[in-house]
Specification:
alpha+beta
Amino acid sequence: MNNYLIEFDNYSNLSVFEFIDLISKTKGISLKDLKVQDLTYYNHELINPGHGIYIFKTDEKILLIGKARSNSFTERIAKHFDVRPKAWFNRLLFIICREHFNVELNDDNFKLASKYAFENGRLILINMKNLSQIDKFESILRGTTETLNKFKKKRFDLNIPLSSI
């Protein structure tokens, strides 16, 4: 799939395993081509409510799985690209430095991580209408995929149906 938006409610009949397969087949939008408009509209339709899970990935791996629950996708995504190491919400650059490059968390390395993300990264949005599902589903995805921000000890059953989340 070449799109970057997955409507969670359209796939409630899938298991977590099948949904992860859907994610792997979803190409996502290139970060170097991403516009603010793409976080608010998809194919000229409003992304409503614009909350849910977002995934930063490359062709080889999932870099980070995060959530936009109290903020919309439009508000949350841009914060990941703040190149200041002490910035509050730039977890993507932190993860790239620490887990992907295994380098010191400093200004120069955050700038390199930013450049890497824009040159290689893609974004997938999972729009979720039920805010109470977002935390649980983010945990499930982080516990069942090989994302760089995976849980070290938390694991989940891949056969969990999405309808039970």
